[in-house]
Amino acid sequence: MAKNSPNKRRRIEAQGFVCLANDEIESLNYWLRFAPAICLIWTAIGVVLGSGSILAALVPFALLGGILTGHPFDVIYNHGIRHLTKTPELPLYGRPRRFACLMASVMISGAAVAFYLGYYAVGYALGSFLIVLAGVNVATGFCVPSFIYGLVFGVEECEAEELKNSEKKIESVSPLWPK
Asked: With contact defined as beta carbons under 8 Å apart, do 13 and 94 qualify?
């Protein structure tokens, strides 16, 4: 996508990351896909192997992403990678992104239980569907569950004053641990 494209902003804001300055959108666009990419790889391994255990081990991480204001995998970026890339911390998760994590944890749990119980077709179907959804997010930045959340509950919008203030803000607080 083009630099500072309106589509990029809409896709990020649909996930609940509103009031980000253009430079923040540009520098965080791909890093907001870091946790979904790890979940995608982990899920793909579990599904390819037909392993309920591998999938069940991912459920707590997905669930925490839905409960907390940040995903546990974001810690890798926030406390490591961002210092190497000289990019800002990831913003706190809004309700649409947390909803997506909760939906992922339900689907991962369903696939894991299906594999444990020997319902492999169900496990492969649920797991494959999740892989496709996560793949769309990782490849394009479009999060289907966040989009559904927006259709049902409405999309948060940034007030012009908030955006102006966000451009002046200093480094944010970590979503999981204070500094």
From this structure: no
In a domain, 98, yes or no: yes
CA angle 116, 120, 126 (to 5 degrees): 95
Residue 26 CB neighbours (<10 A): 16
Instruction: Judge whether 85 lies within some domain.
Output: yes
* Residue 10 domain flag: no
Give a yes or no: residue 123 inside a domain. yes
Read off the tokens for 32: 């907001």
Q: In whole angstroms, give the CA distance from residue 167 to residue 137.
A: 26
Span 142-169, average pLDDT: 76
* Stated pTM of the model: 0.85
- Which value, in Å, is the radius of gyration of the alpha carbons in the chain? 17
Confidence of residue 156 (pLDDT cuts 50, 70, 90): confident
Q: How far apart are CA 33 and CA 29, in angstroms?
A: 7
**79 lies in which domain range?**
28-166
Instruction: Report the number of distinct structural domains present in the chain.
Output: 1
